Amino acid sequence: MDGAKPPAGGGKLELEEALLQIVQQHHHQSLRHRQQTERAKKDALRSAVRVADLLVDAVDGGVQELFVNEKRIELEARALLSTVARYRKQTDQWLAATSEINSVLKEIGDFENWMKIMDFDCKSVNAAICNIHQS
User: Fold this and answer.
1) What does the sequence similarity comment in the record state about its family (predicted)?
2) Is the dihedral of CA 105, 107, 113, 119 positive or negative?
3) DSSP-based three-state secondary structure for 16
4) Which residues contact 6 (CB under 8 A, 6 or more apart)?
5) SS in 3 state form for 28-83?
6) How far apart are CA 6 and CA 116, in angstroms?
7) What pTM was computed for the model?
8) Which of 99, 78, 76 is nearest to 91 (CA)?
């Protein structure tokens, strides 16, 4: 730099050492960078697995709750169907009983009507007999 040339043999050796040192530094930095990259990759993978596990747990919890609710609804539906069947049977019995009562009432009405007709007929016969007897 002040214009003087370094000795021919010594400068080449220093240059090789400097280049060797640069290559070693580059190699060490490259290894550190690779290790940092691997650590970051492993951390990212662990984080992704954790997120996936949390999502699966959240979905599984919802699915499990839905499954429990579905089973409860099925049980309630079966109970409701048996109650409806019981009420249908009871309603059919009531309909049969009311139909029987209606038939009996109709028969009573028919009997009452027959009695009125018989009463009228008897009165007519009685009146005819009285008229014949008086004549």
Assistant:
1) Belongs to the BLOC1S1 family.
2) negative
3) helix
4) 14
5) HHHHHHHHHHHHHHHHHHHHHHHHHHHHHHHHHHHHHHHHHHHHHHHHHHHHHHHH
6) 156
7) 0.44
8) 99
